[in-house]
Amino acid sequence: MKKTILYLITQSELGGAQRYVFDLAINLKQEFNVAVAFGEQGERGELTDKLKQAEIAYYTIPHLKRAISPIKDFLAFIEIIKLIKKIKPDIIHLNSSKISILGSLAAKTCSLFRVPPAAHPRPRTPGCVPLPRASASAGKRAAGQACSVIYTVHGWVFNEPMPKWQKLFYKYAEKFTALFKDKIISVSDFDRQTAIKEKICDTEKLITIHNGIAPINFYSREEAIKIIYSKIENCKLKIENLLIGSIANLYKTKGLEYLIQAANIIKEKSLILNSKFLILIIGEGPERKNLEQLIKRHQLQNNIILTGRVGNAAELLPAFDIYACPSVKEGLSYTIIEAMQAGLPIIATNAGGNPELIEDGKTGLLTETKNPQMLAEKIAYLINNSDLSQSLGANAKQKAKNEFGLDKMIEKTREVYL
Length: 418
Prior knowledge:
Elements lengths: L3 E8 L4 H13 L4 E8 L5 H9 L2 E4 L9 H18 L3 E5 L1 H16 L24 H6 L5 E6 L10 H14 L5 E4 L2 H9 L8 E3 L12 H10 L11 E6 L8 H14 L7 E6 L5 H10 L6 E5 L13 E4 L8 H8 L4 E4 L4 H4 L7 E3 L4 H12 L2 H18 L2 H12 L1
Parallel strand pairs: 1-2, 1-4, 2-3, 4-5, 5-6, 6-7, 8-9, 8-11, 9-10, 11-12, 12-13
Helix pairs in contact: 1-2, 1-15, 3-4, 4-6, 9-13, 11-14
C-alpha cells in the first residue's frame, strides 16, 4: 500500500519553500498519497492554484501565520493536531520555521495520545481535492506506531534580521523541537554547518540535499524584453537600455534596499560606460512601500522599476544582461539556479548557500551582504568587462546542468522517505 505524506508549510504565497513542496508533491504523487496544508494567504495564495491544477489534495490551517502570535499560534497548533488525526500520515514533512515548531509539537502530541480512527466517512475541506483513502498502515499507527517527522530548513530563521530576543526564541525552539524530528534536511551545507555549530541536534539527524530545478523553456531575449515591457505601465524607457534583473519577494531578507543604494552609487559616480541602465525587480511583498520611497529619495524612477508579480518570471530571464541577488539571508536560492540555467552573469551576496552556487570569479561574482558600495563596483566591473560576463554565464550554465537538476533532488529526498 502507498504511504501517505503530509507536507506542512506556513504560507501559500509562492516562494522558494512553496516551490520545493510543490515539486516534491507533484513528482512523488504516483508513488505516495500526498497532501499539502498551509496557513497564511490560504486559498488566495499562488500555491493553491498550482495544487488545484495538479489535482493534489490540500488543506488550509486558518490561524497559522508567519508572525509570532501566542493566541493564533495555539489555535493553529490545535488545528494541526486535528488535521494529523484526520489524515493519519506515515510521514509529516515540515517546511519553514513556524510550522517546524508547531508541526513537530503537534505530531508529538498526536503520538502521545493516539486513538483508533472513527468509523465514519472522511470529511472534505471546502474547495479541496478529497484525500485518497487511508492506507492499511494507518490502522497500525492508530494502534501505537507514530509517523516519521522530517523538516527541511530553507535557511535558519534565527539568521534573519530580527531583535535579539526573537533570534534566541527561535534558536531554542528549534533545538527543543528537533528532539521530535527524525531527519532534518538542509538545502545548503551552510545551514547544515550552522546546525552543527549551534548544536541544534545530533549530527546523525542532519543531511544536505541541494535544491534542484527542471530545464526551463526560456523565451528568446527579444520576446522576453517585449513581454516585460508590456507589463510596465507608462514606460518610456528604451529597450536598448542595459537590463539588470532580480526576482524576489519584497521581503527585508532579500536586501533589495542595498541594490537600490548600489544603483544610486553607479549613477552618481558614473561607474559604467553606458549610463542608460535599468534595474527590474520582479516580485511583490510587504516592503514595496519602503522600496518605492527609497527609489524616489534617490531620484531613480527612471532607473529602477518594481514590476510586481509576473507569471513564469524565470522564462523571461534571457531579457537581462546581468542577474543580481542582494539577499542578506538565503537557504539555496531557486532564482540564482534559474539565472545560472539561463547562462546569465550573476552577482550574489555571500549569504547562506549562495557560495555553493556561485564560485567567485568562475561561475559569478560574490559580494558582501549589506554593502551597496561593493555591489555597485561588482556590477560596474561586469558591465565594463563583457568577455568575463560571457565566461561566467557559460560556466554557471554548465554547473546548473551538472549539479542542480530536479531529478537529483527528488531521488535523494525519496531515499530519506524510504
